[in-house]
Amino acid sequence: MEQIKIGVTGATGQLGRKVIENLKKEVDASQIVALVRHPEKAQDLGVEARAFDYDHPEQICEALKGISKLLLISSNEIGKRFPQHKNVIDGAKKAGVSSIAYTSLLRTDISPLGLAAEHKETEHYLKSCGLDYTLLRNGWYIENYTASLSGVLQSGAVYGSAGNGKISAATRNDYAKAAVRVLTGEGHKNKIYELGGNAFTMSDYAAEISKQSGKDIQYIDLSVEEYAKVLEEKAHMPAPTAQFFASVDAEVNNGALETNDNRLAELIGGHLESLGDAVKAALLSIQ
């Protein structure tokens, strides 16, 4: 019987590495293929690595030969995502891939976020391509916040435009576990999963940092314009990028990143890493 091979795009990225790490706990490493721009950077993953660039259709088709199941981790190049994803889906079909799991965005079909448009296009194309699919509509990563924890501790404040909006974020590791369950399990054909963790506000986040660090950290809510300026000055973001992310943050107050769906917990077996767990890990990493 021919061995099933599972391909993971963007395997050297932050989510991709977590997926590979968790996949190796479920299947033999010989069944896993890391699809990456620079295979030499994937040597530490302990699996086969193939050159794979979203912008090169001819390379994509060759790299996907022999792969049965594919995890398409969305490109990080905003504005180029759909044509890149289309290249991958077309290449997968030509190479004989049987199913694709795609990391989309929470409630893509109705999301007010500017990020949703390219995900929506990709979902529509994937549904129409004739391959089996699973849409993993991931919410925010808690690490989107904890990545800047060092700066928060220095300034004594968490800044944002999210108001009292709730964010159903989860850790990358939990989203990776969910992807692995879909790639290695049954019953996920042509399913759409809304995935998110236990909801918290930015004030809750600031309070958790205060509790664990022993410092008084406050959440300071700003207008989109004010927050964009903070991102420019403190995070050194270009003005258009800062404005974009501040606008995304403002939509949190309208429920854009909140879900009551418990599918993520169900997929990974019930226990999600908490906000407290993520803050603790981030604090340990900067000590």
Automatic annotation (TrEMBL):
The domain of life is Bacteria
> Which InterPro entries does the record match to this protein?
NAD(P)-bd_dom, NAD(P)-bd_dom_sf, NmrA-type_oxidoreductase
* CDD domains (alphabetical): TMR_SDR_a
Q: Which stretches are transmembrane? A: none
Q: Where is the NAD(P)-binding domain?
A: 10-184
Q: Which PANTHER family match?
A: NMRA-LIKE DOMAIN-CONTAINING PROTEIN, QUINONE OXIDOREDUCTASE 2
Q: Which protein, by its recorded name, is this?
A: NAD(P)H-binding protein
